[in-house]
Specification:
Blueprint: H1 6-18, E1 23-26, H2 40-67, E2 72-75, H3 88-93
Parallel strand pairs: 1-2
Helix pairs in contact: 1-2
Length: about 110
């Protein structure tokens, strides 16, 4: 998931193999402990894995869901990691609405 273009390759393989994607479950993530003086590269890796690739994969599959007027995107996040890990794990939860589960119409059908 950290490799450049990983989301596009995954989306392409899914669409070629399945024809369409009805449900996308974004469950990739992880965290490595690092100190307050972590490098920019460490932060970038954490944000890429925990947020950027999930956003890119969603974007790559959203148009075909909207064209079929059906699809679901489930973003899984949680607090199952041990204490003391980096802040990027928490940052990925920021765009996720609701403390438990939430179903929302967040893809505009007008502005596309």
């Amino acid at each position: 998931m950290l490799a450049e273009g990983a989301s596009a390759r995954i989306a392409k393989a899914a669409l070629e193999g399945l024809g369409s994607v009805d449900i996308l479950i974004n469950n990739a993530g992880g965290s490595r402990a690092f100190k307050l003086d972590a490098t920019e590269a460490q932060w970038e890796e954490a944000m890429t894995l925990n947020f950027t690739r999930q956003r890119q994969l969603t974007h790559a599959l959203l148009d075909q869901m909207m064209a079929r007027k059906w699809g679901r995107i489930i973003n899984i996040t949680g607090k199952s990691e041990p204490e003391g890990l980096n802040g990027a794990f928490s940052a990925k939860a920021a765009p996720t609405p609701g403390p438990r589960a939430c179903r929302a119409r967040s893809a505009s059908t007008v502005s596309r």
